[in-house]
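Translate sequence into C-alpha cells.
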Amino acid sequence: MRNPTARPPAIAVADGDDHSYRVIARAATGWAVLRVTGLKDARAVLQDDAVWMICAGADDGLGMGLLVRAQKDRPGLTRVLLVPPADGALLVRWVNQARPFGVLAKPLDDERVHELLSELQRDEAADPRSVASASTGPERDWEQTFDAIRMPIAIVGAGFSLLRINRAGAELRGEDRAHIAGRRCHSVLFGRAEPCNGCPVGSLGDSTRHAHAEISSEKTTFRVHAHRADSGFAVCCYVDLAEEKRRLTRAVEAEKLSALGQLAAGIAHQINNPVANILAFAELLKAGPPLDADQTNMLASIEASALRCKRIIASMLQLWGRDAQKKPLRLTECVHEAISLFRTEVESRPQLALQVEVPPALPSVLGNAGQLQQVFLHLLQNAMQAIPDEGTISVSAGVADAGRVFVRVADTGGGIEPEHLPHIFKPTFTTRPPGVGTGFGLAIAQAIIHEHGGVIDVETRAGRGTAMTVLLPIHDDV
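Result follows.
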C-alpha cells in the first residue's frame, strides 16, 4: 500500500469549500492533511513524496488543474474528485478530465469519507502502482473511472435501451451487468414495463441537449439528469434525493457537533481557573485557625465538589481537545478501565448482572486512551439505563475481521424502537426522561470513534435488547 517515509503519509485537499477540508481532516485519522490554496502549494504537493492522495473539488479551478497535472507528473498518486450536484454533462466532463480513482459527492460527510479511505486502504487497487498499471486501454479506463462513482450512471441509446451502466447503477436492483446491455432502462432501474412518466431522455433532441426530472421508484425518488452526446446517445445520472438529504443532514450535524466541542473546550478552560482558586483558598482555610466540626465538614464538601469539577473539566478538555494525542495502546486495558469505573455504578443496581468476556491480549489500536474509555463507559451506562429492572449487560471483544478489532456492549433491555433508530446518533436526541439523558452521549461517542477511523454498529430488537459494537482498525506497530 503506502510507501514508508520518514513523515506520516499525507492527503492534499484542493477545494475552496472549507467544509470539505474540515471533514477530510476529521476523517483522515493517522494522516497529515494539507490544504492547497495556491499554485505554490500545488507545486509542493507534486514534489512531496509523503503525499499519497489528492482530493480536489471539481468546481475548483486550482483543484482540477492539480488533478490533471498529477496524471502526467505523478500518475501513481491516488486522485479523488469532490463533485457538487451537477447534470450528466458536467459530471462526465469532470471525470474525463480528472480520471479519478474515487469520487465523493458534496457536501461531504464523515461517514462516506471514512468509507472511501477504508476501501482504498483495504483494496489492492488502492496501491497507486496497482491502479496506475491496471488500465489496459480506454475501455478499461472508462469502467474503472465510472465504477468509482457511487452515483448511478447509465448510457441510454435509442428506444431507452441500456448501452452501458456503472457498478452503482447495476446495484440499484441487484442486476448482473453481464445481462443488462440491450435491456430497457426503465425495466432495469425501476422495474417498469413502460417508460417512466416525465423521463428526461424522451425530451432530448437536436435542440434540447440537457434535461432533468424527478422519477420515483419503489423505495425512493431520483433526480435524473440526462445529457445528449454528439453520437446521439444519452448520459444519465441518477441522484437519490433521500440520500442527498441524509448526507446534507449528517454534514450539518457534524459541523454543529464540532462547534459544540470548541465551545465546550473554551468554557472548560474559563471554569478551570476559578475552580483552582476555590481549591487554593480551601487549603488556606485548612492551614488557618482550627475549625469546629461543622465548619470542617463544610470545607471538606467544598473541596470534594471542587475536585469533582476539576475531573469533569479535565475529561471535557481531553474529550474535545483538538490535540488529543493518539498513540499505540492496548485496547484490553482501555476496556477493563471503563468496566472498572462502571462497576461502582452497577453496585447500586444489585438486580443487574454484568458479564465480561474480554481476551487478555486484544490487538493494539492507534488512539487516545481517555477518549476510548469515555466511549466504552458511555455504552455501558447507556445499556444500564435501557434496563429498568432485572437484566444482563454483556461485554465481549475480539478480532472482527482482517484489520479490525471489536468491542461489543449488549443489554437485555427493551430495545430501540424502529422510528427512533435513525436518530440515536443525532445531538440532543434522547428518549430518556428530563434530567436522565442529554442526547449528546452517543453523538459524542460516534464522533470519537470516527476520529479513530472506526464505526459503531447497532443491532436491536424491540423487547429483546440492543447490542452496540465498536469496530476499530488494528495498529501493528507496537
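Note: The chain has four domains: 10-147, 153-241, 245-320, 327-473.
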